[in-house]
Amino acid sequence: MVLLFWADSAVAHAVTVGDKGYIKEVTGVNLIPFLYLGAKHMVTGYDHILFLLGVIFFLYGMKEIAIYVTLFAIGHSTTMLAGVWFNFGINSYIIDAIIGFSVVYKALDNLGAFRTWFGVQPDTKIATLVFGFLHGFGLSSKILDYNISPEGLWPNLLAFNVGVEIGQLLALSAILIVMTRWRATPSFVRQAYAVNVAMMTAGFVLMGYQIAGLIVA
C-alpha cells in the first residue's frame, strides 16, 4: 500500500480530482476549459519541466533553443493527438517510467557520459524529438484513461494541445530567466554538475516509483 501510494503520487501526468471528473463528464466543444487544462498540465508537469531544463541547460542562443523546443513540441503534439484519436495508449506506469528515463538520459548527456563511456555523442536533436514522442504518449494515455467524450473530441484535443504549448512557453520563460541569471555567476560551472546529478537522481526516483506502482498494481 505504501509503495502504491508513493507511485500514484509520482505519476507526473496525473490531474486533480476535479479536472479528472470534468474530463470524464463534459461533452461537446469546450475550447477554453481544455486550453486551460493543457496549460495547467504542462506548467505543473515536473517531468516535462525537468526534461526541458535538461534540453536547454547548455544552450545559449535563442535560435538554437527554439529549434530544440520546437522538436520537442512536434514530438509530443504528434503522439498526443494521434494516440487519443486512434485510441492508442500505453500503461501509465510504463510510460511515466520511460519519461523518467528521458530525464536521466538528458542529464547523462549534459554530463558528457556517452562520450566518456562509448566515445560517441548521440544526436541531441533526434533524441529530443524521440523523447518528445514518448512524452506525448504520456499525455494521450492519461486522457484515454479518463474516457474523454467523442463529442467535440477533435476541437477539444486541439485546444488542449495549444494549452500545452502555452504552458510550455510559460515554463520555458521562467527557466530561461533563472538560467540567464545563474549563468552570469562565477559558480555556474561548478554547480552545473551537481544540478545535473540531482536531475538524474530525480529521473531515477520517478522511474523507481512507476516500476513499484506497476508491480503492486
List the helices and strands and how they pair.
Layout: H1 2-9, H2 17-25, H3 31-44, H4 46-56, H5 62-85, H6 92-110, H7 113-118, H8 124-145, H9 153-183, H10 188-216
Terminal Cα separation, in Å?
A: 10 Å
H/E element order: HHHHHHHHHH
Helix content range: over 70%
Rounded mean pLDDT score: 87
Runs in which pLDDT lies below 50 for 5 or more consecutive residues are 1-12
Number of strands: 0
Global outline: globular
Query: Largest sheet, described in full?
Result: none
Tally the helices.
10
Strand content: under 5%
Structural class: mainly alpha
Q: How many whole angstroms does the radius of gyration measure? A: 18 Å
Key features of this structure:
217 residues, mainly alpha
Model description:
With about 220 residues, this protein is mostly helical. Helices cover about 80% and strands about 0% of the residues. The longest helix is centred in the C-terminal third of the chain and has 31 residues, at about 155-185. The protein is globular, with a radius of gyration of 18 Å. It starts with a helix and ends with a helix.
